[in-house]
Specification:
This protein is an alpha+beta fold. The protein is 32% helix and 26% strand. Strands 3-2-1-4-5-6 form a six-stranded mixed sheet. A six-stranded antiparallel sheet has the order 7-8-12-11-10-9. The longest helix is centred in the last third of the chain and has 30 residues. The chain is globular and about 65 Å long.
């Protein structure tokens, strides 16, 4: 299996007034990629400019960041031509890698806009090298710039940053230095959600478990689903009694704490996210925590209760007035 380290540059509307921005907020104008073999040695490279079909004026931020002019892009080929060549270059057995989680989503959005065959009919597993850098060298939560990682790892800066090929090149350099164990922390792009309950994602990583649901019509339907709200120990698969019931501080994130007599206290977190088609889906993570961390969750629950109480009081006052 090969690793395809990909980076994209895209342009956007200068005014934000075009109707097409709802369908295609970012038009890809450059694809750069590096291919590594299974030993993470560089074996091939890909770089192409794409002739704009949607946004014919360069957004000021894009121009400042990547130093490209429309006259240069006009010499490129169409997205469909470049994409067909890129897919052929990728081959049949490969794993996408990117710096950050956005590129695969925008690539698939552009593919859909041009009516091309999708990369997948469901979630795509990939390596978010930005996240892996945090896992390998920092606190697992921080998200650093690519140039920060290059400086941290003392990698030579032999080509300029902020073009698709150069950023793919440097991302490949970072990936090549990762310990094999770190690469087990893969991510999922969910531009295309699981089609049904049977294809939902259940995966266990070294310190937590993750569940990604199919689409639901709305938040209420999602929270009525048994799989979404159940608290089952992901190590021994036993249904657990909740010590802190599900609560939400903001209507988007939900928390609870359960107890397993074999593995201890387990925190569950539900995030309600919007899908491409206007539906919603759920990402649930579960991990075992200390008693000190439980106090933080109780404090968060108390604040959420107080906020709800304050809102009720405010509403009652408004009605009386």
């Amino acid at each position: 299996m090969n690793y395809v380290i990909m980076d994209l540059e895209w342009n956007q509307s200068s005014t934000g007034e075009e109707e097409v921005t709802k369908i295609l907020p970012f038009e890809i104008i450059e694809i750069g990629a590096i291919k590594l073999n299974d030993e993470r040695r560089m074996i091939s490279e890909f770089t192409e400019l794409i002739k704009p079909q949607v946004y014919h004026e360069m957004h000021r931020i894009t121009r400042k960041l990547i130093h490209l002019q429309m006259e240069q892009l006009e010499q490129g080929r169409s997205f469909t031509e470049v994409m067909e060549q890129f897919r052929e270059w990728c081959g049949d057995d490969y794993f996408f890698c990117t710096w950050g989680p956005l590129d695969l989503t925008e690539l698939q959005r552009n593919i859909r806009y041009y009516g091309m065959e999708p990369l997948s009919d469901g979630p795509i597993r990939f390596l978010d090298v930005q996240k892996l850098f945090s896992i390998a060298y920092e606190d697992r939560k921080s998200r650093r710039s690519l140039e920060y990682a290059i400086d941290y790892l003392n990698i030579e800066k032999d080509i300029p940053f902020h073009r698709a090929f150069s950023d793919a090149y440097y991302t490949a350099k970072v990936l090549a230095l990762m310990d094999e164990k770190v690469l087990e922390n893969y991510s999922f792009d969910v531009f295309h959600l699981p089609k049904n309950k049977e294809s939902e994602i259940h995966v266990i990583f070294d310190t937590y478990a993750k569940y990604i649901s199919r689409a639901f019509s709305d938040k209420t339907q999602a929270l009525e689903d048994k799989t979404v709200t159940e608290t089952k120990c992901y190590l021994c698969h036993k249904l657990l009694r909740r010590k802190i019931r599900w609560f939400s501080p903001n209507g988007k994130h939900y928390y609870c704490v359960s107890y397993c007599d074999r593995h201890g206290y387990m925190k569950s977190k539900i995030r309600i996210r919007k899908a491409e088609n206007g539906a919603v889906y759920v990402v649930k993570t579960q991990k075992f925590i200390t008693e000190a961390e439980i106090d933080n969750i109780r404090d968060k629950q108390s604040k959420a209760r107080q906020q709800r109480k304050d809102k009720r009081i405010s509403k009652n006052r408004n009605r009386q007035n």
